[in-house]
Amino acid sequence: MVTTDENKGKPDPSSSDPTKISRSTGKDAGEKPYEFSDLSSDTSASQPAANMELILDIPLEITVELGRTRMLIGELLKLGQGSVIELSKIAGETMEILANQRLIARGEVVVINEKYGIRITEIISPTERIEGLK
Predict the structure, then answer these.
(1) Which of 52, 63, 78, 112 could serve as 117's disulfide partner, Cβ 3.0–4.6 Å?
(2) Could you tell me the pTM of the whole model?
């Protein structure tokens, strides 16, 4: 709908509600165009380090996946102490490292002071990470 100054203050003929009054959209109504800031002198390029500080303390859950398998409920119910579940990965094969359930890297299992660790052998590229989201 286009309104003009000649319709200003009159009921809007295009509206089914005769109580609606059209308003002028011209400069006479006191409207001013929005002025956008100059993007060529953007200072946000100097702010990435400051923005990064905001997220450095956010906790992530890191998981190393040893392997997977599928089994029937009947097989699951038969498991007992000493049962062995065969996994899909072969001994010595690289493990997947997940951050909040998203693949970020691969690595090999190591033992450090009698605790397991993982040595990163491959970092997943941003392109591969995006493909993994599909």
Answers:
(1) 112
(2) 0.52
> What's the pLDDT score for residue 54?
81
Instruction: For the beta carbon of residue 12, count every other beta carbon within 10 angstroms.
Output: 16
For residue 20, the number of C-alpha atoms closer than 13 Å in the C-beta half-sphere is 8
**CB-based contact 83:96 (threshold 8 Å):** no
**107 contacts 121 by C-beta, under 8 angstroms:** yes
- SS3 annotation, the chain: CCCCHHHCCCECCCCCCCCCECCCCCHHHCCCCCCCCCHHHCCHHHCHHHHHHHHCCCCCCEEEECCCCCCCHHHHHHCCCCCCCCCCCCCCCCEEEEECCEEEEEEEEEEECCEEEEEEEEECCHHHHHHHHC
- Give the model confidence (pLDDT) of 22-37 as tens digits: 455 555 556 777 776 6
- pLDDT by residue (tens digit) across 52-94? 778 888 899 999 988 889 999 999 999 999 999 998 888 888 8
Structural domains of the chain, ranges and CATH numbers in brackets: 60-134 (2.30.330.10)
